Amino acid sequence: MPDTGPADVHVGKKRIQNVITGNVIICLLLAPLVLMPLARKWELDLRRVSIGGLAIALFAGIALSWVTMLHPLELPTRIIAGGAMILFLAVVMLLARFYRDPERSVPVLNNIIVAPADGVIKYIKKIEPDKETLSSKGSENIGLAPQFIDILPEGRGYLIGIAMNFLDVHVTRAPIKGEVVYMEHVPGSFISPKRPGATGRNERMHQVIRDHGYSIGLIHIASRLVRQIVSFVDVGDRLLPGQRLGMIRFGSQVDIILPDRGDLGIMAETGDRIVAGETIIALLKGD
Fold this sequence. Notes:
- This protein is an alpha+beta fold and about 290 residues long.
- It has helices at about 5-40, 45-70, 75-100, 145-150; strands at about 110-115, 120-125, 135, 140-145, 155-165, 170-175, 180-185, 205-210, 215-220, 230, 240, 245-250, 250-260, 265, 275, 280-285.
- It has 2 domains: about 5-100; about 110-285, Glucose Permease (Domain IIA) (Distorted Sandwich), CATH 2.70.70.
- The protein is built from 4 helices and 16 strands.
- Helix 1 (about 5-40) runs antiparallel to helix 2 (about 45-70), helix 1 (about 5-40) packs across helix 3 and helix 2 (about 45-70) crosses helix 3.
- The longest helix is centred in the N-terminal third of the chain and has 36 residues, at about 5-40.
């Protein structure tokens, strides 16, 4: 057996370093090409995606180096393998974030209404008795169920839409203390987009929570492609503010219906990023 001198060891280490460096560079170049189109399509925070993409590229580059040292690969094959590793690691990281369920610090204050979901305020619509107010998601626009109109004094109120993305926590929380007095599950449907004029419908869950003197409504809206809304509560349950209501797998929106009372003050604005169970979105000033 030939002796392995210091020069050979140095050459071996240098070769390993070059392999790792080359593969990390490949993955760093591939990561934006793979991840950014998906981030824009799903309206994700590009800054957070960029930071996560850097970590994913480094891990993918190291994993690709381990594979290429066991089985040498040509450059085109390394590029394909690197892209596949980036996509796989991104999915794993995305699912880990999606299914997290952190504890929340609910404000210990009276007469407040906290956010039912993480996300961004998409719209705040005034509900009037002489016009139809629509819950809107993408191309789907649906009028409010009669049970929601019934809780509004003289048919007046506010509809606040909260848009969620895949990076948000998808566990929803009770905006107020009170009793669940109404629940309805509205199944979704999916029709192939190849069919002319075809449209799908998102799965929804309707809830009404009643406290003394007033009620609020909630509309949980799931994704059209992967749709499952899990409820942790049922009619007759008594809730505390910030208590877990359910989870939308893979969800994208929660709407809340508030009565237009004389003492109601909306604290949130369109474009605000809010946190379920923590952010105060409305205040009952005189209750």
